[in-house]
Amino acid sequence: MVIRYTVPASEEGRALKNVLRDSLRLSAAQLRRLKAADALLVSGERSRADRVLHAGDELLLQLTEDAPAFPPEEGPLTVLFEDEHLLALDKPRGVILHPTHSRFTGTLANFAWAHIRASGGDGCHAVNRLDRDTGGVVLFAKNAWACSRLAGSAEDKRYLAAVCGVPESEEGSIRFPIRRLSERDMKRVCAPDGQDARTDWRLLASREGLSLLELRLFTGRTHQIRVHCAAMGWPLLGDRLYGTPASLARSAAMGQTMQALWCTRLIFRHPADDRRVTVTARPSGEVLALFDLP
After folding, report:
1. How high is the pLDDT of residue 294?
2. For position 215, what pLDDT does the model report?
3. What does residue 56 show for φ and ψ, rounded to 5 degrees?
């Protein structure tokens, strides 16, 4: 991919390597590749990394990267947003996001890489991650530069969850620290010695002992929503890891074998021009129908 960048007045007198690292967020590996290829161009001239820049200088960078270690594979995709740098997909529940040692094909990333490669993209990098049984918005970067630029750029992440139980108020904030149950255990618990975690919630609807919640994450701890809701006494419908005997019995009676959780909104700053981008997805109709919602 090619990056073009005009040096602003605020970066007058800075070294080229510092602008590449700080403003364009190139990784050390990307900078090494550019230097090795003698491909650092400033206003059409090949330049050293320590060259002093001036306002108005034009940077032209041809970035390359290794292809993903996993194979491209044709598969079903629901595209929510796409441009030359990004691909946002609506991930179905039950689909694994990324290949692992035990599962190298059949994942959403395999399908995304085939799509990205066909459109001329260089790579396939998952920017946000969802559990296998969680559905909704997943954002992929088509190159390593866009991925590094997106680090920490999410301004708003919203989820919808169907839970067993009804909150006593219309909204609130959960701020219980979270840690692993034990060193090798996948399960997490709320504990004073855990990492800070915050989940804000709002009650959208309730019916027959079930509630539909909108949740906003301010931290990204593993299983955060599932752990926080369970700690509040509202385990997610279909959650086999954090459910109670009562919630598991209710889930089984309703045929819910996966946690009823979707990432429904992701707002972030675009890596190329810093514009605000909003991507949305809807949960399954069967869960909305539980609350008489269209």
Report:
1. 80
2. 98
3. 95, -10
- Domain locations along the chain: 2-62, 69-151, 155-262
How much is the pLDDT for 39? 87
Fold of 2-62: 3.10.290
C-alpha Rg value of the chain to the nearest Å: 22
Query: What distance in Å separates the CA atoms of residue 249 and residue 182, rounded to the nearest whole number?
Result: 27
> In terms of C-beta density within 10 A (0-12 exposed, 13-18 middle, 19 or more buried), how is residue 152 classed?
exposed
Q: What pLDDT digit, counting tens, does each position of 131-189 carry?
A: 999 999 999 999 989 998 898 778 899 999 999 999 999 999 999 999 999 988 899 99
Q: How much of the chain exceeds pLDDT 90, in percent? A: 79
Do the domains at 69-151 and 155-262 have one common CATH topology? yes
* Domain 69-151 grouped into CATH 3.30.2350.10: yes
Q: Which residues are catalytic?
A: 131
Taking only the tens place, the pLDDT of each residue in 199-219 is 999 999 999 999 999 999 999
Task: Look at the domain 155-262 and name its fold.
Answer: Pseudouridine synthase (3.30.2350)
